[in-house]
Structures are given as structure tokens and as C-alpha cells.
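Hi! If you just cloned this repository, the fastest way to understand the data is to look at a raw example. We've pasted two of them here, unedited. The first protein comes first, obviously.
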Amino acid sequence: MKLRKSMLRQTQRGVFITALSFSVLSCGQNQKNGMMTNGAPEYAVMTVDTSAVDLNTSYSAKLRGKQDIEIRPNVSGFITKLCVDEGATVKKGQTLFIIDPVQYEEAVKVAEAAVNVAKANVATAELTAENKRELARKNIISQYDLQTAENSLASQKANLAQAEAELINAKKNLSYTRVTSPSNGVVGKIPFRVGSLVGPTTATALTTVADVSEIVAYFSLNEKEVMALTKNNDGKTAKTLEEMPEVELQLPDGSIYPYKGKIITVSGIFDDATGSASVRAAFPNKENILRSGGSGVVLIPEKNNEALVIPQNTVTEIQDKRYVFVVTDSSTVVQTEIQILPINDGQQFVVTSGLKPGDRIVAEGVGTTVRNNMKITPITQEQAKAKLQGAIQQQAGAAAK
């Protein structure tokens, strides 16, 4: 029971402090330096000025491995064994699938037998040819008989060469029954299982091996953005890429990938349908955090020495439009629409239009008590914090009693 009463008192105290912060800042009968104000509520006001900021322009990106290789069989047959599973990390030359090798082993044996027969025929033809040469030297047989023997030897040698070629092809087909990885990488989806009939004409690949030692992020820039990148280098994209700073990658969970990347290519042709050019940025993937087929947001840094930066809590949003309350010389607030950069760090906005250096805007209470054309008594943010802190301490002292 005592614990519940204590929690109730703490909750009531928190509610009171929240309410007190608004009442201190916006009460219609405030005191200032010991004197009563003219009845206009006091609100903290800040002056907008330019400052140097480091900005990040964000682009949605699709991630791909350094190379994604489709694995396809070179011979037809039934899969007898799956040597890896989806998502496995494999090395170059590692066996992925085994296709029934029986018929190809038999083909090798037949080819070996054919080679042995051809070798025997060559040996017989050589004996015959040598005998004919000796007889020809003694003028016992005609030149025709000798040439016939020589032609028979050449024919048998050709048959041997053909048989040896067929043996090489049979052995190669037998080796193809063990489907191996052409590179280091990660195994993708495996649509076929043991017992599936596959072959060179199968439309679907056995799987994909993605080399993820380096991940490439694909994103797009519109024509205006590409021109902005290259205009200072006489349109030379290669020079622009060399001078561009490293970029960052924001992961789907909102975190920033620990390794920075580099933009490596910008397409020289704009897509007719989208009006954009494809861009590639490469990121190292030492710890295999990134996977091919994933997504992210590429952040390109940009320094702006004359940016108008305002806190997000000074802005209200109405029907996808953003407004601030500008304080006029007569201490009247005017609701003013602003435009901002599509960059959001959760704390500040960079204003592109609607404000100019030297403008004063209401810094607190814009989403609750401030109204358009309202008369206020401007105070500094430091004064507002001091008044709020004093009221909180006064309430804490009263509660202690």
C-alpha cells in the first residue's frame, strides 16, 4: 500500500511539472524583473542564423555481392546428393551438388576401351607399314601397295586420336557430375532437391553463389544531381569519382554500417523510363554482415557553410506542410511555411526557403499553445530555462514540506 501511494505521488508530481512548464512560459499574467507584463504570454524566441553543417544526402539502395554467379549443370541427370545448404559459406572448388555419375562412369570405360582398340590397330598398322617399306626397298611390291599401307597407318592413328578425344570428353562429363563452386561466396536459394532431374537446358539455376567479400550498393541519381556532381570537373566523371568523399551505408534497422564505402561508377546513360542514372558504391564486407539481395540507404556527405539550421521542435506539420512561428517587430507571431532538405537526423532541419538570417522564431510551445497572429512577450531561451528550473525547484521544496 505504501509503495502504491509513493508511485501515485511521483506520477502526480510529474504531471504537475509538465503542466507547470507550460504555465510558466505562457501564463497571461507573468512577472518580469519584478514587474507585471502587459498581459501577453512569454515565449522563448531564437534568432535564425547561418552555420556550417555536415549534411548527408540519402538514397535507397539495393545490395549485391561483388559477383553473383548462377550455378547450372553441364550434364543431365538426377541429383543424388546436396553437399551444402542455403546460406552456407563455400570456398572455390567446393562441391555443391552431385549428379548421378553411373552412366558417365560407364561412358568413360567405353571410351577407354575404344582407345585401347585404337592403339592396337595403330600398332598392327605400323608393323604392316614397316614390312611394306622393306619389301618396297627390295622392289618386291609396287609403290601402290606401300602407299596403301602408309594410308592405313595414318587412318588408324586418326582413329586413335578421335578415341582419345572421346575419352577426354567422357572424363570431363564425369567430372561435371560433381557441381562445384566457381568462387568463394555464400550459397543462395536451392530450388532443387535430391531426386530432381536437371540438365543444361533447365531454365532455373541450381543455386547462386554470391561473392560477398565486397558488397556493391546500387542506387540512382537524377539528371540534376549527376550534373551537380560533374559540373566542376568539365563533365569528367572519372575525376569526379576520385574526388568524391567516402560514403556511408545505413542498414534497415537504422544503424550505420561500420565500414565506409566508395562510389565506383556512375552510368553515362539515363534511363528513359525513370530519367535517372545508375550508381554503384562498393563497401568492404570483412565480417560478412551484409548479404547480397539486401537493402540499405547510401549516405553521401556534403558540407554546407551557409545552412539555416533550426531545431525540429520549433516546427509544426499540417497536411504534409511544415510551419514555424516568425516573431515580428511588434511581437506578433506569424505562421510561416518553410521548405527543408530531405535530410533528417531526428533533431534539426535545414531550411531552404521561408526563412532568412536574422528572423526570430518561437522556440517552444509551437505545437500546443502558440497561435497565428498571437501577441507574445519574447524572452530568450536561457530566461525560459531559468524560469522553468526555478518553478520546478519551488514545487520540489513545497512537496518536501
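Ok, and the second one:
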Amino acid sequence: YILEISSKDKRSHYDAVTHDHDHFICESCNTILDLKSKSTKKSKCEMGKINSNINYYFGICNKCLKLNNK
């Protein structure tokens, strides 16, 4: 199995890590990084039972921050 991730660069990116985890997407270079997630609890919500989740965080990665501060 493989996870497909879309980003602003309109290209598909693929992640071999398919268990629940979050992603950080750099808005400058479009790098996608896996974030170490705190344990994801499967639970019930008002719409039904949650089996999995993936969150995306957008910002500027450390590499781009360092390049822009030179």
C-alpha cells in the first residue's frame, strides 16, 4: 500500500508510511515531511466511528527559513 498526497505544486507525492500520521507541507519548496504524531485514538464522533485520520500542516520548512535569513 502507498499513500498519495497532493500539494500546491499540483504533482502527486507518494508516502510509503501508511499508518495514521500528520504531514508538514512547505509552502516555499513544496517539501512534504512526516510529522511524528502523538498516539491517534480511534474514537466515535457524532457522525460515526473514526477509523483513521491524516492532518496537513502548511508553513515554511527550516531549510527555507535558513535560506531566506541569509
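That's it. A detail worth noticing about the second one: The chain has a mean pLDDT of 79.
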